[in-house]
Amino acid sequence: MTSYARSERNALCDTFLRVGPSAATLCSPWTTADLAAHLVIRESRPDLAIGILIPQLTRRLDEAMVALAATPWAELVDQVRQGPPAWAPTRLGLVDERTNMVEFFVHHEDVLRTEAGYAEPRALGQAHEQALWRTVSLMGRLLARKAPTGVVVVAEGFGRAALKGPVRRGTVVLHGRPGELVLFLYGRQRVADVALEGSPADVSALCSASLGI
To answer: Do the Cβ atoms of 111 and 15 come closer than 8 Å?
Structure first.
């Protein structure tokens, strides 16, 4: 079975080496060095990574990220490429796929879509898109929970899913490839190649909403 988590990890690391540590990302104000440091801490330092969820621990996390981001670039990228330590559950293939496939896909696009000369989305294989559609189907309700509108997603050839029922506003229907829907639902509305069907006010509200985990 193809490991899309592993292939995206390696592809992201190749892109890191190509663009360097100071390149911009969609996770502004993070540079690529900041993003690489985030990925290493997320996988190897759960005691620090918990600061992502607990505001009282955010300062400690930020300080650790700044220190790690100063690591020589090739060495830091190699840490990302090597993955989690031996004790981590994500060393197991299935756990890695469930935990990291979307994480590395989204963060790879965070780098690619800020590059000068970026023109259009990568062409992903059908099986890769199917794996991403599975994520939309399984996690979409969680990702869309803060949407100010109802949300329905449609990926031609893959399926249709209602992620959030009508609220005070109407429903917006998103049409796109699974990878583009993933990006939209993870808060990258500005760059996702998605067609939106709904009233202008509802579309505007959804595009400016805080989506994702």
So the answer is: yes
- List Cα–Cα distances, 47 to 2, 36, 61, 64, 186, in angstroms: 31, 18, 9, 11, 24
Residue 1 has pLDDT above 60, yes or no: no
Q: How many CA atoms lie within 13 A of 91 on its CB side?
A: 8
Tracing tokens 């990878």 back to the chain, one arrives at: 179
Element (H or E) spanning 152, and its range? Answer: strand 150-155
Report the half-sphere exposure of 39 (CA within 13 A, side-chain side). Answer: 33
> 126-207 domain in CATH 3.30.1050?
yes
Q: Where are the domains of the chain?
A: 4-112, 126-207
> What percent of the chain has pLDDT above 90?
75
Helices 4-19 and 32-44, axial angle in degrees (round to 10): 140
Give the per-residue pLDDT at 88: 85
| pLDDT at residue 26 is higher than 80 | yes
The token pair at 107 is 């963060």
The Cα 97–Cα 104 span in angstroms is: 10
| pTM of the predicted model over 0.90 | yes
Can you list the pairs that 159-168 forms with residues at least 24 positions away whose Cβ atoms lie under 8 Å?
A: 159/133, 161/136, 161/137
The 8 Å CB, 24+ separation contacts for 11-17 are: 11/108, 12/80, 12/104, 12/107, 12/108, 12/111, 13/77, 13/78, 13/80, 13/81, 15/108, 15/111, 15/112, 16/73, 16/77, 16/80, 16/111, 17/73, 17/74, 17/77
